[in-house]
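Quick one, tokens below:
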């Protein structure tokens, strides 16, 4: 749940609609899962007009999830 090594590349999605504080997004990590326990970390930011090529202003959304 802390430290570790990232598997695969960072996924980024832009302009995801939020309704009542919730959002839904399908994620495709490819063939990253080898049977070991892994954790997902999600970061969010308000719409600043920046696209995914700029990583400024993101906040981690809660703890990593198994």
């Amino acid at each position: 749940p802390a430290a570790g090594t990232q598997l695969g590349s960072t996924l980024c999605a832009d302009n995801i609609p939020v309704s009542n504080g919730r959002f839904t997004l399908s994620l495709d990590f490819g063939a990253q899962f080898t049977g070991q326990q892994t954790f997902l970390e999600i970061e969010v930011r308000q719409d600043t007009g920046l696209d995914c090529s700029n990583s400024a202003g993101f906040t981690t959304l809660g703890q990593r999830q198994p």
